[in-house]
Design brief:
Blueprint: H1 6-12, H2 18-28, E1 32-35, E2 40-41, H3 42-58, E3 63-64, H4 66-75, E4 80-88, E5 94-102, E6 105-114, H5 120-123
């Protein structure tokens, strides 16, 4: 898989999804983004997301698009997916975690977290090595 360009990622968002539209608008406004090129099994991503959402809920924070994202990841079955982010913390204050089906490239889930309280577990965009 080659690097994902801004134009490819912009066209991968579901225009009918509110949280996808917010993440896409953030990119159009100049927000940083990254898509990892390493495939992750959808069930692994689903488990990690459930843990992050539990952490957010435990601390009284909401995540935009959480239910839809969980459904999208569950529907992905066992396939390998790509994980990325759109960082609009300097703009609207949201950090969007995105999950993509690689072929064709499309966003199957997106979660937006208001990062104003600085939750590093969800809002740290540093790629893991």
């Amino acid at each position: 898989m080659e690097e994902v360009s801004a134009s490819k990622l912009l066209s991968a968002f579901d225009v009918d999804s509110e949280v996808d539209a917010l993440a896409r608008d953030a990119m159009l406004s100049g927000a940083d983004f990254h898509v990892g090129l390493k495939f992750i099994p959808a069930p692994t991503a689903l488990g990690i997301l459930r843990g992050r959402l539990w952490h957010l809920q435990r601390h009284g924070r909401q995540a935009l698009g959480a239910t839809e994202c969980l459904v999208g990841l569950a529907k992905a079955g066992e396939q390998g997916i790509l994980v990325g982010w759109v960082d609009d913390r300097k703009g609207a204050g949201y950090f969007y975690q995105i999950y993509l089906s690689p072929r064709p490239l499309r966003v199957i889930g997106c979660v937006g977290v208001d990062s104003s309280s600085g939750d590093p577990q969800v809002s740290d965009p540093a790629p893991r090595k």
